[in-house]
């Protein structure tokens, strides 16, 4: 099992710290540093900045929003980042959600699975430097009734095939991820529930005539070390409540639905009710300790090290750290601690 680090969003006042976190992860031999985007900083610019100031760590988008870029523009960006970084780029994609897709990008959130399939088809075609022609439901390239012509990407990526990861939560999306992706970007990953939750992923691999061999399972896992499990859970509560309660509408919140499938349907409903009535403290308090403990690494380093075996047994190949420590010294300390506990566990790849 390898380690990654999720740098989150840029522009929140911790930019210099995030750069130092990436540099330290690079020095420690971490596999990949991911950057995210929502409706603030874009991930591509951030990853270019990180790549210029690191030497060996991979850089990855977690995620590029599918409604925010045409497939051709995404391929251009991916090829450029791979070239500038010397072959270190990993392309993570996701459909985002209806609020961001329709409210920010002006793209209807309809048939996300079919849209994702076409998008990945075109991106791969462009990255193979084939002449791009496509007849799909969402994209027709070139447009049939205009002067456009089929074009070929002029940038030569360092690698012939760039790994494509999908952020997937629902069963159908997970099945698609297994079928067409090279890796899965997971959130609220519970090793105890992994067997059932990953069934669609495995099924998708089988439908494509593939196994899980070589497929990268990459959950982002909050890490808060400390003497008390209960106290370590507290910084994660607001984060969990935001996603389960506020990321999406009452009817379409994929994180809320995931928590329900994990056996916390009543708690998920309570969190959403309180969050939507702007009782944010109450929503955070309603997040069960058991749920946090299942989906995060909290407590003494020895406990965290023992817990890593559950992730490895569940099929995790790259464990990405989401650090909730406050100061840069604490965040760097978490990176170093995770390297040490992984080495001691005997699971390091």
How would you characterize the overall build of this protein?
This protein is α/β, with parallel strands linked by helices. The chain is 48% helix and 15% strand. The protein has an eight-stranded parallel β-barrel, surrounded by seven helices. Strand 4, helix 3 and strand 5 form a beta-alpha-beta unit. It starts with a strand and ends with a helix.
Quick structural gist:
By secondary structure, the protein is an alpha/beta fold. 48% of the residues lie in helices and 15% in strands. The chain folds into two domains: 271 residues, TIM Barrel, CATH 3.20.20.30; 68 residues.
Taking all Cα atoms into account, the compactness measure Rg is 20 Å
Relative strand content: 15-25%
What is the count of DSSP helices, taking H or I runs of 4+ residues?
14
- The parts where pLDDT drops under 50 for at least 5 residues are none
Q: Give the helices and strands as they follow along the chain.
A: EHEHEEHEHHEEEHEHHEHHHHEHEH
The helix content is 40-55%
Number of domains: 2
Which term fits the overall shape? Answer: globular
| Head-to-tail CA distance between termini | 5 Å
Q: What is the CATH superfamily of the largest domain?
A: Luciferase-like domain
Mean pLDDT: 95
Helix- and strand-based class? alpha/beta
Q: Main sheet?
A: 8 strands, parallel, barrel
Supply the CATH class of the largest domain.
Alpha Beta
As laid out across the biggest beta sheet, the strand order is 1-2-3-5-8-9-10-12
């Amino acid at each position: 099992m390898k380690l990654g680090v999720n740098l989150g969003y840029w522009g929140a006042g911790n930019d210099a710290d995030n750069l130092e976190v990436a540099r330290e992860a690079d020095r420690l031999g971490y596999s990949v540093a991911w950057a995210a985007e929502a409706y603030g900083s874009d991930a591509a610019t951030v990853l270019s900045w990180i790549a210029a100031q690191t030497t060996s760590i991979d850089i990855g988008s977690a995620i590029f929003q599918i409604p925010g870029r045409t497939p051709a523009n995404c391929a251009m960006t991916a090829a450029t980042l791979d070239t500038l970084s010397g072959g270190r780029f990993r392309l993570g994609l996701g459909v985002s959600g209806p609020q961001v897709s329709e409210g920010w990008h002006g793209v209807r959130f309809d048939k996300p699975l079919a849209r994702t399939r076409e998008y990945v088809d075109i991106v791969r075609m462009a990255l193979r430097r084939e002449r791009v022609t496509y007849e799909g439901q969402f994209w027709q390239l070139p447009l049939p009734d205009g002067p456009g012509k089929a074009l070929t990407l002029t940038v030569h990526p360092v690698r012939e095939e760039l790994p494509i990861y999908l952020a997937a939560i629902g069963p159908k999306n997970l099945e698609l991820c297994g079928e067409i992706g090279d890796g899965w970007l997971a959130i609220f990953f519970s090793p105890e529930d992994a067997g059932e939750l990953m069934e669609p992923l495995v099924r998708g691999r089988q439908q494509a005539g593939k196994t899980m061999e070589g497929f990268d399972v990459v959950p982002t896992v909050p890490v808060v070390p400390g003497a008390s499990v209960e106290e370590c859970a507290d910084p994660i509560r607001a984060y969990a409540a935001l996603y389960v309660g506020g990321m999406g509408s009452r009817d379409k919140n994929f994180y809320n639905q995931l928590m329900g499938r994990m056996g916390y349907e009543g708690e998920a409903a309570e969190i959403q009710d309180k969050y939507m009535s702007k009782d944010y403290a109450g929503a955070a308090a309603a997040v069960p300790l058991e749920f946090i403990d299942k989906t995060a690494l909290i407590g003494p380093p020895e406990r965290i090290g023992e817990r890593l075996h559950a992730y490895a047994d569940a099929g995790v190949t790259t464990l990405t750290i989401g650090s909730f420590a406050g100061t840069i010294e604490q965040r760097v300390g978490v990176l170093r601690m995770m390297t040490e506990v992984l080495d001691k566990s005997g699971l390091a790849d």
